[in-house]
């Protein structure tokens, strides 16, 4: 199977990490520091894998349609699933989870519209989108270990600002693209 190259295998491994982190979190109710440390290590591995699969796919020309779908899917699965669990256990505020959720729904709707118009699966990632994923991972790491610290709250607010910028940028780019196609086809 040509789609199952090294980059895609790393992405699939990242997807497999998500239920492991969730299981450890739910089993311990995010109260056991040893399991929280294990989750932190797994999230760091996930983040490193995110950078590694992208690097390998570009450097070794391993970009595939499967990878174009799986990579952002892995990110969304991790962020939404783990943040949901951390919200349930009061480690992440509900407003933060809802902000991420609403932004991701809007981006998904833009992707769906883009796909219906072009039959292309790729939405170009922007710097805010990539940065927001990094900050989401940082918020999750801190929620497991430092959820009462002042630094955590500053990172949470900065992450929310970057997430909002990412959502607005995707909407702007999507509308610009849509109206550009309409103008071109008219």
Describe the structure.
By secondary structure, the protein is an all-alpha fold. The chain has a single domain, classed as Up-down Bundle (Four Helix Bundle (Hemerythrin (Met), subunit A)). Helices cover 83% and strands 0% of the residues. The chain is built from six helices and no strands. The longest helix has 36 residues. The protein is globular, with a radius of gyration of 17 Å. The model has no long low-confidence stretch (mean pLDDT 89).
Tags for this entry?
186 residues, mainly alpha, Four Helix Bundle (Hemerythrin (Met), subunit A), 0% strand
Q: Segments where pLDDT lies below 50 for 5+ residues? A: none
Q: How would a textbook summarize the main sheet?
A: none
Distance between the termini: 41 Å
What's the CATH superfamily, by name? Answer: CDP-alcohol phosphotransferase transmembrane (TM) domain
Helical content band: over 70%
The CATH C-level name is: Mainly Alpha
Structural class: mainly alpha
Number of strands: 0
Radius of gyration: 17 Å
The general outline is globular
Series of H and E elements: HHHHHH
Q: How would you state the average pLDDT, rounded? A: 89
Number of helices: 6
The CATH topology comes to Four Helix Bundle (Hemerythrin (Met), subunit A)
Question: What number of domains?
Answer: 1
The CATH architecture can be given as: Up-down Bundle
Strand coverage percent: under 5%
Short description:
The protein has 186 residues and is mainly α. It has six helices and no strands.
Per-chain topology:
Blueprint: H1 6-28, H2 33-59, H3 65-88, H4 94-118, H5 127-145, H6 150-185
Helix pairs in contact: 1-2, 1-3, 2-5, 3-4, 3-5, 4-6, 5-6
